[in-house]
Amino acid sequence: LAASLCALTGHRPVNELAKLKLDWVIPDYGLVVLRDKQVDSLRNTRIAATGRRWLVELREFLNRLLDVAERRDGTRERELAQAILRSDAPLFRIPLPDGSIQDMDAAILKGTMPEPLQAVGNHYRHRLNQFLQRRHVDPEVRHGQLGWILSPAHFSADLSPYSPREFANRIGPVLDELAIHDGWFPASQRVSP
Question: What are the angstrom distances between the C-alpha of 182 and each of 27, 38, 50, 61, 177?
Answer without folding.
Answer: 22, 29, 15, 20, 9
